[in-house]
């Protein structure tokens, strides 16, 4: 199965150039049954990454363009009265897909953003008083423009906490950008991609994540990281129990991607910046939350 994962990474990396670490983090997020937030400037490949992942994994994909006039019904669906049958018929919205791209999620109002909360947490939606299950696997990739750009609404903490990880792509390296300039159009390349995994294989991988061994010493390290965020004065608030589970599952998923049956401290250190980036705020200093934590808490 590790060879299959390598094929997935190579296929995505053939379109998203020079970003193998970010690709592997996105895959770890999916295997951990979480959701991914990508925050970066327009034009660096956020939307393309979502398209390529869905194509290579053979999953049903739908893009929702978030705008200031978007309504919850535009996401969830709506019940429409049909005169012929004298009854209401539910017309499902785009949320009923396996991979959802919530493009520019912070350009929608908080009311529209809140339509994703139940779906992301419980993999179901409640419309017109009836609860409907979402397909499995269910993976939300949201892109977010920097808050200083015009027309953005900040995501509330409750919404941010639903995302397992938050990453940024950044500008490509010089060699990768030259290859991008000389190569084929990315849209043509996406159309030529073939699925490298079946849905059953992907679900089996997700189920394997929770079986990756975690030692007591590793849990001690993880709890030391959590305790530091809750007691150190440079953080506004500490990591919640949900964040603790997110860090654990992300580390297990990363170990699985590396072909190991047990989590190492290095796995925790690799995924930690993405897990805490959108959950912690530093009140002093120039280090990111992840850098500060890794520097302050030694491995037992």
Radius of gyration: 20 Å
- The assigned structural class equals alpha/beta
Written as H for each helix and E for each strand, in order along the chain, the element string is: HHEHEHEEEHHEEEHEHHHHHHH
What is the arithmetic mean of pLDDT? 88
Major sheet size, sense and barrel closure? 5 strands, parallel
Quickly give the CATH architecture of the largest domain: 3-Layer(aba) Sandwich
The number of helical elements comes to 14
Helical proportion, percent range? 40-55%
Low-pLDDT stretches are: none
Beta content: 5-15%
Indicate the overall shape. Answer: globular
- CATH topology title of the largest domain: Rossmann fold
Name the CATH superfamily classification of the largest domain. Answer: P-loop containing nucleotide triphosphate hydrolases
- CATH class of the largest domain reads Alpha Beta
Strands ordered across the widest β-sheet: 2-5-8-1-9
Count of individual beta strands: 9
Tally of structural domains: 2
For the termini, the CA-CA separation is 32 Å
Describe the structure.
The chain has 300 residues and is of the alpha/beta class. The protein folds into two domains: 2-195, Rossmann fold; 207-296, Helicase, Ruva Protein, domain 3 (Orthogonal Bundle). The protein contains 14 helices and nine strands. The chain has helices spanning 2-13, 20-31, 46-57, 72-76, 110-113, 117-122, 157-160, 174-182, 186-192, 199-209, 216-231, 241-257, 265-276, 289-296; strands at 36-39, 61-65, 77-82, 87-92, 99-103, 124-127, 130-133, 139-144, 165-167. The protein has a five-stranded parallel β-sheet. A two-stranded antiparallel sheet has the order 3-4. A two-stranded antiparallel ribbon has the order 6-7. β6 (124-127) and β7 form a beta hairpin. α2 (20-31) packs across α12 and α13 packs antiparallel against α14 (289-296). The relative contact order is 0.15. The mean pLDDT is 88.
């Amino acid at each position: 199965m590790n060879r299959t994962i390598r094929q997935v990474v190579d296929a995505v990396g053939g379109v998203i150039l020079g970003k193998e670490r970010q690709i592997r983090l996105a895959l770890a997020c999916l295997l951990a049954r979480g959701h991914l937030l990508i925050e970066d400037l327009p034009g660096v490949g956020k939307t393309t990454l979502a398209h390529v992942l869905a194509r290579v994994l053979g999953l049903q994909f739908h893009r929702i363009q978030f705008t200031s006039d978007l309504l919850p019904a535009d996401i969830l669906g709506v019940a429409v009265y049909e005169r012929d049958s004298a009854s209401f018929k539910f017309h499902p919205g785009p949320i009923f897909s396996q991979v959802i791209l919530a493009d520019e999620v912070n350009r929608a109002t908080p009311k529209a953003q809140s339509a994703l909360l139940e779906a992301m947490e419980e993999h179901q939606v409640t419309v017109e008083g009836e609860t409907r299950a979402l397909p499995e696997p269910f993976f939300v990739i949201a892109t977010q423009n920097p808050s200083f750009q015009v027309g953005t609404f900040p995501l509330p903490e409750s919404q941010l906490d639903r995302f397992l990880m938050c990453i940024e792509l950044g500008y490509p390296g010089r060699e990768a950008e030259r290859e991008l300039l000389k190569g084929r159009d990315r849209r043509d390349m996406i159309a030529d991609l073939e699925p490298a995994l079946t849905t059953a294989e992907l679900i089996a991988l997700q189920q394997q994540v929770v079986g990756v061994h975690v030692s007591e010493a590793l849990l001690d390290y993880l709890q030391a990281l959590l305790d530091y965020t809750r007691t150190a004065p440079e953080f506004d608030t500490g990591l919640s129990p949900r964040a603790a589970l997110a860090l654990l599952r992300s580390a297990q998923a990363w170990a699985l991607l590396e072909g190991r049956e047990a989590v190492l401290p290095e796995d925790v250190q690799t995924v930690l910046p993405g897990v805490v980036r959108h959950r912690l705020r530093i009140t002093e200093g120039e280090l990111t939350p992840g850098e500060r934590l890794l520097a302050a808490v030694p491995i037992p």
